[in-house]
Amino acid sequence: MAAERLLISLLTTHFQVMVESIIDEKNNRMAFSLYGHFNQGLL
User: Fold this and answer.
1) How far apart are alpha carbons 39 and 5 in whole angstroms?
2) How deeply is 25 buried, as exposed, middle or buried, from its count of CB atoms within 10 A (0-12, 13-18, 19+)?
3) What is the pLDDT of residues 15-42, one digit of tens each?
4) What's the CA gap between 19 and 5, in Å, rounded?
5) pLDDT band, residue 43 (cuts 50/70/90)
6) Which residue has the higher pLDDT, 10 or 37?
7) Coil, helix or strand at residue 17
8) What is the pLDDT of residue 11?
9) What sections of the chain are H helices per DSSP?
10) CA distances in angstroms from 35 to 1, 22, 25, 29, 31, listed in the order given
């Protein structure tokens, strides 16, 4: 039972980290594209 719970908690933690990194990547891409548009507007 304890090993099962440990495995589940490890999997959920891993999943949360994966989701957070995917969200960070999307946010970074949006920030870069906005920055690029801003730079083009200045040129």
Assistant:
1) 51
2) exposed
3) 999 999 999 999 999 888 888 888 777 7
4) 21
5) low
6) 10
7) helix
8) 93
9) 2-42
10) 51, 20, 15, 10, 6
Helix (H, G, I), strand (E, B) or coil at 43: coil
Q: Which amino acid is at 6?
A: L
> Is residue 10's pLDDT more than 90?
yes
Place of tokens 């989701």: 19
Q: What is the DSSP letter of 11?
A: H
State both tokens at 3: 């090993």
